[in-house]
């Protein structure tokens, strides 16, 4: 694998040449993703193949990384493996995007050259959970020092019926 991937790529040119990009990308170079991480050290393994299927220019490949996200229960770091397959159709208009086969997502290009890291970052962000959490129960309840000497009563408290006042009024005939 290469230590460095190109910063800019020409997807249509790579598709015509049946190009392949393999290498690693540092996590800290992905600005939007780095803000969500507890630790932005580490790399992303990238393996992309460009080609054509008839008139369709396409990108297929694989991205792997282990991210450290913030657990939304305990606010500690949780290691989150990312292992996603990419299947993109290179398009230049909304009309072309609407005609893509179902298995392809559109990669809209407006200029000849685009940032490779944007493609990778978009794919990773789409595969992240909305609320990352540890697999095990990790919620820590905070105790109040004033309540440490309180005696715990194991008897269930009586349930309070919010309509009990209406029952009283019904029995008295005031209703």
Largest sheet: 6 strands, mixed
Catalogue the unreliable spans.
Answer: 141-152
Structural class: alpha+beta
Strand content: 25-35%
Q: Count of helical segments?
A: 5
Task: Name the helicity range.
Answer: 10-25%
How many DSSP E strands?
Answer: 8
Summarize the structure.
The protein has 175 residues and is of the alpha+beta class. It contains 5 helices and 8 strands. The chain has a domain at 8-127.
Question: Layout of helices and strands, plus pairs?
Answer:
Elements: E1 8-9, H1 11-17, E2 20-26, H2 31-34, E3 37-39, E4 43-53, E5 56-70, E6 77-91, H3 94-98, E7 105-108, E8 114-115, H4 116-127, H5 164-172
Parallel strand pairs: 6-7
Antiparallel strand pairs: 1-8, 2-4, 3-5, 4-5, 5-6
Structure description:
The chain has 175 residues and is an alpha+beta fold. The protein has a domain of 120 residues. Strands 2, 3, 4, 5, 6 and 7 form a six-stranded mixed β-sheet that branches. It starts with 7 loop residues before the first strand and ends with a helix.
Index terms:
single chain; 175 residues; alpha+beta; six-stranded mixed sheet; 5 helices
């Amino acid at each position: 694998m290469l230590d460095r991937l190109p910063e800019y790529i020409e997807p249509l040119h790579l598709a015509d040449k049946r190009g392949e990009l393999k290498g690693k990308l540092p996590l800290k170079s992905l600005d939007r993703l780095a803000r969500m991480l507890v630790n932005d050290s580490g790399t992303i393994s990238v393996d992309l193949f460009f080609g054509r299927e008839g008139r369709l220019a396409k990108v297929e490949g694989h991205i792997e990384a282990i991210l450290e996200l913030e657990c939304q229960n305990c606010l500690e770091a949780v290691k989150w493996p990312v292992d996603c397959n990419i299947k993109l159709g290179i398009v230049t208009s909304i009309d072309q995007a609407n005609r893509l086969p179902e298995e392809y997502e559109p990669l809209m290009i407006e200029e000849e050259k685009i940032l490779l890291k944007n493609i990778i970052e978009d794919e990773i962000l789409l595969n992240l959970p909305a609320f990352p959490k540890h697999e095990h129960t990790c919620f820590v309840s905070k105790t109040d020092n004033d309540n440490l000497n309180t005696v715990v009563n194991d008897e269930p408290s009586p349930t309070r019926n919010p309509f009990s006042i209406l029952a009283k009024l019904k029995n008295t005939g005031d209703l």
